[in-house]
Amino acid sequence: MRLGSGTFAACCVVIEVLGVALFLRGFFPTPVRSSSRTEHQAEPPAPEPSAGASSNWTKLPPPLFRKVVIMLIDGLRDDFVFGSKGVKFMPYTTYLVEKGASHSFVAEAKLPTVTMPRIKALMTGSLPGFIDVVRNLNSPALLEDNVITQAKAAGKRIIFYGDETWVKLFPRHFVEYDGTTSFFVSDYTEVDDNVTRHLDKVLKRGDWDVLILHYLGLDHIGHVSGPSSPLIGHKLREMDSILMKIHTSLLSEERETLVPNLLVLCGDHGMSETGGHGASSVEELNTALILISSAFERKPGDIRRPKHVQQTDLAATLAIGLGLPIPGSSVGSLLFPTVEGRPVREQLRFLHLNAVQLSKLLQENVPSYTKEPGFEQFKMSERLHGNWIRLYLEENNSEVLFNLGAKVRRQYLDALRTLSLSLSRQVAQYDIYSMLVGTVMVLEVLALLLLSIPQALSSEAELEVPLWSPVFSLLFYLMFLVLSALHVIVCTSAESSCYFCGLSWLTAGGVMALISALLCAVGSALAKMFADGKFLSKNPAHPKARWSELDVLILLGTMGHVLSLGASSFIEEEHQTWYFLINTLCLALCHEIYRNCFLRDDCEPQQCSHVEEGFVSPAPALQDRSIRCNMLEPHRVSKGPTSLDTLRGYEKWMVLASPWVILTCCRLLRSLNQTGVQWAHRPDLGHWLTSSDHKAELSVLAALSLIVIFALVQRRCSLTSKVAMALGLLGVYCYRAAIGNVLFPWQRDSKDISKGVIEARFVHVFVLGILFTGTKDLLKSQVIAADFTIKTVGLWEIYSGLVLLAALLFRPHNLPVLVFSLFIQTIMTKFIWKPLRHDAAEITIMHYWFGQAFFYFQGNSNSIATVDVSAGFVGLDTYMEVPAMFLTAFATFAGPVLWASHLVSFLSSETSGSALGHACFCYALICSFPVSAYIILVTSLRYHLFIWSVFSPKLLYEGMHILITAAICAFFTAMDQTNTKS
Amino acid sequence: MKDTDIKRLLYTHLLCIFSIILSIFIPTFFLENFSILETYLTWLCICSVFVTAINLVLYLVVKPNASSKRSSLSYKVTRFLKRCIYFLMSCFFFHVIFVLYGAPLIELVLETFLFAIILSTFTTVPCLCLLGPNIKARLRVFSRNGVTSIWENSLQITTISSFIGTWFGASPIPLDWERPWQVSPISCTLGATFGYVAGLVISPLWIYWNRKQLTYKNN
């Protein structure tokens, strides 16, 4: 079957999107969570199982403790309490741990070891996955079921002092709070004094049930001077004295009320040997957890090592201790020592509640839950428990009762451990099988693209897709069978759940067939290439195609960029790579221009060689062996001498000056938005403009920018779209004025700030109008075959519609980015691409580079935090998912999209024939190259320290980028189709 | 004849490398706490002066291209002055390019300018010595098939390798190793120096290995 190279590339990218999606699904396991939110917590607690006999315990058990004080010390590593430091600096705590009525544990935190996710883990008992960060971009408040919300619902009064993250996570939950900001890391006394100063007052009062204290000082010391600094000792001593104060006060209160209280001392994460945290070293993961209460009996001389438990276990324990239902998505199991002192019936009741909650969570998250060992254990212990209750109610022999009780308890504890383990494995493990299948698909597509370069970039821009060749059909069926067998084997033997195995058999079979078909295609392409290679080696008169400096630069730049993705710093500062590359590109263009301008007279030999090439090349062009040469120089053949000498006077000077103008523009844009990580704090023009003192300047700049945008865009539009464009841009300014970003000259102060829905919709109407006109023109050009100009105008209208939409969505200080983008495109078109006659491949790659650079000029970076979510609300009254997602994606990727659409309109207006197909192919190739390389890199770096903070966001960006590339390629192909038809 | 030429080229290049090494070690005898990283501005000046001096001396001694017929003093002086102006211009030109590449405009002006000077020393000075103040000749040398002697060929190689060294010298700046030499102009300067030295080493070898294929118009 013969396909145009554009169509072929589009198909390839679509398959690649599927592969990347599968990979992403495997890489980001969905977090384990219960479907029931806190709102409808009406379901009654599970009644006590009783085989036959009726039990009267159907309600939640009453709380074990009257008051609970949670003292959370940020960065409290386990050896700060249990190690030599603890003995030295925390004498009271050490006494409690060794001899007092307490239970001490080493609680293991999960990744990422950063405060906010850890607070979530402590309070919900769930493991926040990375994808949560993206999902909760809008709402900082914790919506999941958690202990604090449950406590509030149960009418407990909660007081909080400390890190204000809590206040953001739990708004309106605390009857009294004082949040301290953790912004100034160098301050480690004030932050803690702000917490402690409330303590005396609060401890005397009796009007609260839960007191939460979050001390930040220790973590700050760690950040500043590391865990071995002498300051740590002082801080630990201070914490010890605070603990003593709280404990004595609680004890004295207990003497009056005779109901035990609970004091919890815990850390949220540890501290690495350099003092930081966030990664997965043992020092960062292990935190101290001590539960202190007079309810905990202890025989003298009972020395225990702190047991290793999970951090998530605290939520379930606190819920039981406070008499609350266990948070729905908690994966923790009750810390059993805390209830050891209770009667056996109560113990079993607590264990049962916990097991019921965990098994419910398992049912919701694992499709084949009945096969899980934990679930079977749970069912068995529930049956035993019922028997025990019957015996108990019948008041049987106490010895039998006791033995059976001990057995049930052991069963429950086993079941809990297994359940908790299998649930947390759901989150913690990569789904390697899905990742592998996705990677294989992506790599096969890339190989196919690479192998088909010579054909796809030949002058016909068509290629034979050898899917149905009979020789390979046997291989195809064999591959298909082998892969299906593998699939069955992997899926039946896999321990953890796997997304790809969860798919229906038909879908999985389809994917397998696709993979084997791709493999066959790659194989046949390879075979063909070898055959051609043999044919060519007999044919010695094969001319060596030349590489210009520009081609070398383009190739090396692409390679270098792909290689740089392996280093986390280069990902954080990827904008620098692109700025650097486009600067170098401009200088290379400059060199080319100057050489062409000044060395007209003495470059005779070069021209000769060009002409010679022109004569020889067409014959072996089809079987060209040197892939790269052909890829980069498909049009050299028809190129001939450049047309610089036809330019005269002013134009020539403009050509000479244009690279410098572009370089200056890029430098200006660079100082508009500082992005990345290392230099993000530097002052930039964007911040200066958005500060409220400079509103007038911003207004002038925005107005000017809009005018220039109009001037640059209108020249090739039809009259109607010119008018629409002008009105639309006016609407953009009105919208920005309405939401209070900019000022009208007659409006001195911004009083009434609205959401600007009407203005934004006004602009939306014009955007749609312009896009509609453009589409209409394109359709018309398809019907009236001869008229070529209509198509050009139509494409330009679509482009200008996108520009208008971008102008609406960009924040006003970013409008210059749009202006410069248009300006550079105009200059490049007029003075560089046309006179120098670059071929389609080179122009495509330059467009891609500039598109990438403009992505960062907009202020984007490779972290999720820089996504401008507000763009999703432009013109919408309420949050609507689909339009909001579309608008946000467009606003984020406006740079690449605008450059790509400019590429389409430029190529279809300037060149003819196969250029669009070539461009589409090159675009697909150059976009899929980094994605495929990055997927492999991420797979090999999946246990890297920065996998969650740096590599994962970049992976999401890449996934989004390939999706957008697929859309662009589809557009390309559509244009190419109309081209070939006309 | 060619072999002797290549030998001469090799010796001159070795001398240039020697001058750079001297510029690192000699100041330690005269200046206290001298090291490349800590007092690198001083080192830049010294290195630049050394390399310029050795280039001038070598040019006067070796005389790679046939000296011009006219040799009146005034002509020589104007030529020399012209070269100085060209050198300054190239310094400013490089400075502008560094700023375009993202060097801060206002801060670190001295550092950036010294960096521009040293890059000019590595690239423009040999060029001025060899080709004289002639832009067209420079453009010719730096385009494909434009060289006419092994001297020009070696000039091409050293210059390009200095530029490439500078270019790659900028790449460790974003990395988070937090080393003292990762600051903006230092790593580029070091890259330029390494590139220049590498070019000096490579060019005689490359010319020697390719001496059969190389045919120059004049030779």
Give a structural overview.
The complex is a heterodimer of chains A (982) and B (219). The two termini of chain A are 22 Å apart. Among the domains of chain A are: 68-329, Alkaline Phosphatase, subunit A (3-Layer(aba) Sandwich), CATH 3.40.720; 342-430. The longest helix of chain A is centred in the C-terminal third of the chain and has 35 residues, at 947-981. In chain A, the strands form two sheets. In chain A, strands 5-4-6-2-7-8-3-9 form an eight-stranded mixed β-sheet, sandwiched between helices. Chain A has a two-stranded antiparallel ribbon with strand order 1-10. Chain A is built from 39 helices and ten strands. Residues 37-42, 540-544 and 601-642 of chain A have low confidence and may be disordered. With 219 residues, chain B is mainly α. Chain B has one domain (3-60, 73-217). Helices cover 71% and strands 0% of the residues of chain B. Chain B has helices spanning 2-25, 27-30, 40-62, 73-100, 109-131, 135-141, 150-169, 184-209. The chains are: A mainly alpha (982), B mainly alpha (219). Chains A and B meet through α24, α25 and α28 of A and α4 and α6 of B.
Outline of the structure:
The complex is a heterodimer of chains A (982) and B (219). Chain A is mainly alpha-helical.
Strands of the largest sheet of chain A, in order across it?
A: 5-4-6-2-7-8-3-9
Regions of chain B with pLDDT < 50 over 5+ consecutive residues? Answer: none
Sheet bearing the most strands of chain A, described? 8 strands, mixed
Helix- and strand-based class of chain B? mainly alpha
Number of domains of chain B: 1
Estimated helix fraction of chain A:
55-70%
Question: How big a fraction of the residues of chain B is strand?
Answer: under 5%
Number of strands of chain B: 0
| Assembly type | heterodimer
Strand content of chain A: 5-15%
Mean pLDDT of chain A: 82
The CATH class of the domain at 68-329 in chain A: Alpha Beta
Poorly predicted sequence stretches spanning 5 or more consecutive residues of chain A = 37-42, 540-544, 601-642
Beta strands of chain A, count? 10
Question: Based on CA inertia axes, which overall geometry of chain A fits?
Answer: globular
Q: What is the helix fraction of residues of chain B, given as a range? A: over 70%
User: What is the CA-atom radius of gyration of chain A, in angstroms?
Assistant: 34 Å
